[in-house]
């Protein structure tokens, strides 16, 4: 194990990205089988604007292993990424998400869906064309699909990444820059990536209401993004106070447990129907006081 310090100085332990331990090989094989068997599911988490309008849904992959139970996406995404299974996983996710978007559209629910893609995908030749072909096959307009990327796409082969992203936006697919503020965020990246949305990482949002430095970082990020013509979404919004701060800072939309956690497809359908044209609104009645301990 490697000891690392996170940005708050707390020591965190991460398992080494060792791609050939028996454990990882076992999980990899199981993931491959689960994909083939259709056992991997997508859940959907709403992104809402401050007026309540549902701006979109993010598709988040969920895998319940028969023996280990729920495996966190961060864990198996890393395994897929380092093993070459990633393109297969992404195909699966895109196929599932687009099938769902097509069904929702047929029911009059026209909400865009965002799919997370990895640097591997963006570097694989023909990715942009394959996405366009898949959209056409499902009869889904490109504007109903958003792809979330991170700055990591620029690490390996920036030119190829730029070509793929240009191909995607050329087809009308919208790009979103995920986890902004983590790692080695750079203004150069913002200029080079053809994104129309920036997502502020949860690590800055979580303590926004109590940490003045985090609040300043968010304020600057919102202003910068807006001056570049980007929409700003805050990730991981869990309480009212954070929602209010973000609204006051001019953020455009939020995603987080305050609104809804990622939900299975049927629950998402019900959620969308219940909100309908009125969108999502914070409960106006105060919660009953909690029982004293
Ligand atoms: P992400 O794309 O930044 O997704 C946001 C993560 O924050 C999700 O974790 C979501 O469940 C979680 N989250 C949302 N609201 C809140 C909140 O209010 N509080 C807290 N504490 N957490 C919240 P999840 O689903 O575990 O996914 C983790 C990461 O795994 C994602 O981060 C994304 O990078 C990756 N991932 C998930 N699905 C896929 C996929 O289909 N393909 C790829 N390539 N990566 C994926
Ligand atoms: Mg994401
Ligand atoms: Mg994120
Ligand atoms: Mg993340």
TrEMBL record:
Keywords, sorted A to Z: Membrane, Transmembrane, Transmembrane helix
Positions of the EAL domain: 24-276
Molecular function per GO: cyclic-guanylate-specific phosphodiesterase activity
Bias (Low complexity) ranges: 283-293
Stated name of the protein: Phosphodiesterase
UniProt key word Ribosomal protein: no
Gene source species: Streptomyces thermolilacinus SPC6
Top-level taxon in the UniProt lineage: Bacteria
């Amino acid at each position: 194990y490697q000891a690392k310090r996170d940005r708050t100085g707390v020591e965190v332990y991460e398992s080494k990205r060792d791609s050939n331990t028996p454990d990882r090989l076992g999980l990899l094989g199981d993931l491959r089988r689960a994909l083939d068997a259709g056992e991997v599911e997508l859940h959907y988490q709403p992104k809402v604007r401050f007026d309540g309008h549902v701006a979109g849904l993010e598709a988040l992959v969920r895998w319940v292993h028969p023996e280990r139970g729920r495996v966190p996406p961060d864990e198996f995404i890393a395994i897929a990424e380092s093993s070459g299974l990633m393109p297969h996983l992404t195909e699966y996710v895109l196929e599932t998400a687009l099938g769902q978007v097509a069904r929702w559209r047929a029911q009059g629910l026209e909400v865009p869906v965002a799919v997370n893609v990895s640097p591997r995908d963006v570097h694989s030749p023909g990715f942009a064309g394959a996405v366009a072909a898949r959209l056409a096959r499902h009869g889904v307009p490109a504007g109903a699909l958003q792809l979330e990327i991170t700055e990591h796409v620029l690490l390996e082969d920036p030119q190829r990444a730029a070509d793929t992203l240009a191909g995607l936006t050329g087809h009308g697919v919208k790009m979103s820059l995920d986890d902004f503020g983590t790692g080695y965020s750079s203004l150069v990246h913002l200029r080079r990536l053809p994104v129309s949305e920036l997502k502020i990482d949860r690590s800055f949002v979580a303590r926004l209401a109590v940490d003045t430095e985090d609040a300043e970082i968010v304020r600057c990020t919102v202003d910068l993004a807006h001056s570049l013509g980007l929409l700003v979404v805050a990730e991981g919004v869990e309480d009212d106070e954070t929602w209010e701060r973000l609204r006051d800072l001019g953020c455009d939309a939020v995603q987080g447990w305050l609104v809804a956690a990622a939900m299975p497809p049927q629950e998402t359908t019900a959620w969308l129907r219940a909100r309908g044209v009125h969108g999502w609104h914070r409960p106006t009645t105060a919660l009953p006081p909690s029982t004293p301990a």
